[in-house]
Amino acid sequence: MENSKIIIGYLIYLPIVIILTIYVSKMLFKNGKYFMRDIFKGQEDIALATNKLFEIGFYLINIGWALLILKISYSSKNEMSTQTLIELLSMKIGGFSIYLGVMLFLNLFFFFRGRRKSRQNIKTVSKTPIYDVRNEQLK
Amino acid sequence: MNYNILTYCIYLPIIAVIMVKVGWLFYTNGEVFLLHLYKQDETIVKPINNLLLIGYYLTNLGYAIITVAYWEHIQSIPEILSTLSAHLGIIIIGLAILHYNNVLCLNYLVKSKRILQ
């Protein structure tokens, strides 16, 4: 069994990565609902459906990428030591975690953008009066 | 058990505790600033704050884990202490720089908001 260490590495890598992806996207889109409600101005059904679609896309991209970078290439005559395995795994898992963080910030940026755009439309189309808390307190 | 693995076992819990603690402090104190920026709009501030916290954890812990891959070979117990402190120091200084950067950004945002109003 000269490759057993690599298989152990895969068995450690896969659950960590998949659980991390599921947890992050659950949290992201649980919080994203509020943004979607703002963007679609209270049209609950469209907001939730869009949110769900984004969530599925997020899962697909990230789990796909995780599987794509799975391969551990180790070419040497001697058997792999535990230390090398830990170092290779840290490279993979740390890299994936940073990638996931960047994706999360990208999504957050899209939410902000959508929210700002929908706000702008409200202002130009209907001119809703802006409620100012400070003036209310001054009176 | 060689010295490198022992060092990783000491390093990872320490860095995880520091990161989680610091992140939690930012989370609780940053909420006040966000509330100020969004005119006390509680429903949108909570999600933003949660997402920022998760992003912070992912990128920072990811970086902390990645440094393990580039660790030098350790031969003796004194070397464990010296390399451990060097690596921890780099990461903590990095966190401090990021933190001051953040505070400056927030300060700038709050000021520009005040000018607009």
In short:
The complex is a heterodimer of chains A (139) and B (117). Chain A is mainly α. Chain A contains four helices and no strands.
Short descriptors:
heterodimer; A: 139 residues; mainly alpha; elongated; B: mainly alpha; 85% helix
Give a written overview of the molecule:
The complex is a heterodimer of chains A (139) and B (117). Chain A has 4 helices and no strands. Chain A has helices at residues 4-39, 44-68, 82-126, 133-138. Chain B has 117 residues and is mainly α. Chain B is elongated and about 60 Å long. Chain B starts with a helix and ends with a helix. In chain B, 16% of the residues are buried. The A-B interface holds A 24, 27-28, 31-35, 38, 82-83, 86-88, 90-91, 93-102, 104-105, 108, 115, 133-134 and B 2, 4-5, 8, 39-40, 43-44, 46-48, 50-52, 54-59, 61-69, 71, 117.
What's the SSE blueprint?
The complex is a heterodimer of chains A (139) and B (117).
Chain A: H1 4-39, H2 44-68, H3 82-126, H4 133-138
Chain B: H1 3-37, H2 42-66, H3 77-116
